[in-house]
Design goal:
six-stranded mixed beta sheet, three-stranded antiparallel beta sheet, about 260 residues, Rossmann fold, single chain
């Protein structure tokens, strides 16, 4: 049973941004009747803004902290007074995960490590290199947190492997999980791995996922409720009816049809 039953954004405004994007204009009593809801649509339709607005209302954490109306979430902050959420039941667990936040987090760990090593450079040749490395690791709180939360070898993983590892670590029982375009860091085979993992988590019936994606693979999560956002509305669709599915299938069946003019 989902935690969130439905949501609405009722501002009465048509302009400026973010009130003029399709995902906001047509977000009137949107049912969330299944454990997985997926929003799809072209670039600029407002999928990410929609997820950010819901995440801010739920006070869900990011990988490196919490959402605030500033720091890149100004649109979500503007929409807060107009967002109504209907609950089926309550939970305080969950998180909001964006591909760019993952990259920023990993980069911040590496940048901090580089700065600390530069600060310790004067010890080079005076103190053994292994001791300098241990001192550097111990001084990096972000590195300590990463290792504590995700394992000692997370930095040894590829970008996609680390991304999937963090998702698998953070997604647990009895939570609401918002994933914004998770395919950005995942190969097709890793996207299938994510689907398999989500399917296993859903067996407990105590989790809810709200996902935005361009990936025809992730749109195929079994039992998902799909909403396609267009310039003239936000409508529930079947998987095979989505524009992403139709274009991808047509292309794979006959790529020359699309590429002959190149």
């Amino acid at each position: 049973m989902p935690f969130l039953k439905s949501f609405s954004i009722n501002s009465g405004k048509k302009n400026p941004f973010p009130f003029n994007i399709s995902a906001v204009q047509f977000a009137t009593h949107v049912p969330l009747s299944k454990q997985v809801t997926i929003f799809i649509g072209d670039n600029g339709c407002g999928k990410s803004t929609l997820l950010e607005t819901i995440a801010l209302k739920l006070n869900l954490p990011l990988i490196s902290g919490f959402i605030s109306p500033g720091a890149g979430f100004e649109a979500a902050g503007l929409l807060q007074p107009f967002l109504q959420i209907e609950y089926q039941r309550q939970t305080h667990k969950g998180f909001f995960f964006r591909a760019e936040d993952f990259s920023d987090f990993v980069n911040s760990v590496e940048n901090e490590q580089r700065k600390i090593r530069e600060d310790l450079h004067e010890l080079k040749g005076v103190v053994d290199d292994s001791i300098i490395k241990e001192m550097s690791d111990n001084m990096n709180y972000k590195l300590f947190r990463m290792r504590k939360d995700y394992g000692e070898n997370i930095q040894a993983y590829s970008h996609g492997e680390a991304y999937l590892k963090i998702l698998q670590t953070r997604i647990g029982d009895k939570g609401i999980f918002l994933l914004d375009e998770p395919e950005a860091a995942l190969s097709p085979i890793k996207q299938l791995s994510l689907i398999f993992f989500i399917a296993e988590v859903l067996k407990s019936h105590n989790t809810q996922f709200i996902i935005s994606t361009h990936s025809p693979i992730l749109m195929g999560i079994p039992g998902a409720l799909l909403y396609e956002i267009k310039e003239d509305g936000m409508n529930e669709v079947r998987y095979e009816e989505t524009e992403h599915y139709r274009i991808t299938k047509t292309f794979l069946n006959n790529p020359d049809l699309y590429l002959r003019e190149l």
